[in-house]
Amino acid sequence: MAKKKVVLLFGGKSSEHSISCATAAGVLGAIDRNKYDVIPVGITQQGVFVPAVDDAQHWALRKGHLATVQDEGARIEFALDGSRNVTRVNLDGTRASLGAADVVFPVLHGPFGEDGTMQGYLELVGVPYVGNGVLASAAGMDKEFTKALFEAANIPVTPHVVIRESNWLRDPESALEAVKGLGGLPVFVKPARAGSSVGVSKVKDWNEFAKAVKLAFQHDNKLVVEHGLVGREVECAVLEGRDGAKPRVSVAGEIVVTGREFYDFDAKYQDEDSVDLIIPAKLSDAELAQMQEIARRAFQAIGGQGLSRVDFFLTKDGFFVNEINTMPGFTPLSMFPSLWQASGIEYPKLIDELIDLALAK
User: Which of 174, 209, 227 represents a domain boundary (last residue)?
Assistant: First the structure.
């Protein structure tokens, strides 16, 4: 049986560039080479498509080191004529076909990759791709519209206020008044369209609020301020159902942070000693069933395809959805594959499943 040609697309222009590289490392190290020919394609921080080395260790996330895609002169081009052909353009201008792609696996995080822009490009190219489509990717990336869709579907979300930079500059007092109406401190200030906790601040003193807003606006011109809920941080992973079946949901996992204010970028990627990932989370059967059903509804509310991870707070008042991640971290130790491993799907088989779902679209 002929191997499928898989383009692994990673890097990108967002602040999560290096996290995307680490996700690519996980896939490169685990994908079944007896089934797939892999074409690694990096996107530089300037948005240039380049050939990338097929070496998991080269892209792996290491403490104190964040890998980046470098522009060494060669280019990668995708045909727009429906042929799905991938071409390498060398520094001297010579061209070499790398063959026709069967599927693209875009392990891109953040804007210009996870937000529908790359998905739209791949639709134009006419090649199947792993994961969510244009609408779900865009909706899942923008916290304002994610929450609006969830509220329309009667899914409980964290109390929040949206602030646009123009409104903040014109009338900060009104914005602050709206935030204070959420229910008091602490609050979390987040860029509306960023991930991996980039630009996020926990505010415990109103005198620090303007500083947090300034930081968030460095990453987006719109931010979401959420009331800090007291509860456990728990997550479920979701896979699209086969042949029209309902989405599949994993067991739950719990994040326990020690020595830090919250689960920030460093806690996620540079200071693993400050975090315990507990899988499966200690929940009653009824709590787990309720959480899984909410996760399934959240996936359906954004029109999800392929995969997502749904993040919750479990409080004394029940579950609240914090956010949905339409391209979650995918290293072998990340929460998404770890949850599926605990649910009976090993990492290489999870890659197979996602590729199969993409080819079945």
Answer: 227
pTM across the whole model: 0.91
Distance from C-alpha of 136 to C-alpha of 301, rounded to nearest angstrom: 9
Regarding whether 16 and 39 lie in a shared domain, the answer is yes
**CATH number of the domain residue 271 falls in:** 3.30.470.20
Residue 335 and residue 249 share a domain: yes
Instruction: State phi, psi for 290 to the nearest 5 degrees.
Output: -65, -45
DSSP state of 273: G
Domain housing 301: 139-157+229-359
Q: Is 344 helix (H, G, I), strand (E, B) or coil?
A: coil
Residues 275 and 145 in one domain: yes
Instruction: Give the DSSP H or E segment for 164.
Output: strand 160-164
Q: Which pLDDT score is estimated for 65?
A: 78
Cβ atoms of residues 9 and 108 within 8 Å:
yes
What's the confidence (pLDDT) of residue 268? 47
- What are residue 95's DSSP bridge partners? 89
The DSSP element (H or E) to which 215 belongs, if any, is helix 209-217
Question: What per-residue confidence (pLDDT) applies to 198?
Answer: 78
Instruction: Give dist(CA 162, CA 176) in Å, integer.
Output: 11
Burial of 91 (C-beta count, 10 Å sphere; 0-12/13-18/19+) = exposed
341 and 239 inside one domain: yes
Question: Cis before residue 328, ω within 30 degrees of 0?
Answer: no
Is 172 inside any structural domain?
yes
Burial of 175 (C-beta count, 10 Å sphere; 0-12/13-18/19+): buried
Pairing of strands 307-315, 318-325: antiparallel
List the one residue out of 200, 206, 212 whose CA is nearest residue 185: 206
Q: Residue 295, SS3?
A: helix
Give the residues of the chain that fall short of pLDDT 50.
262-271
First-to-last CA distance in the chain? 21
Tell me, yes or no, whether 249 and 272 share the same domain.
yes
Quote the pLDDT of residue 195.
Answer: 64
Say if residue 216 is in the same domain as residue 344: no
Sequence letter at residue 325: N
How many independent structural domains does the chain possess?
A: 3
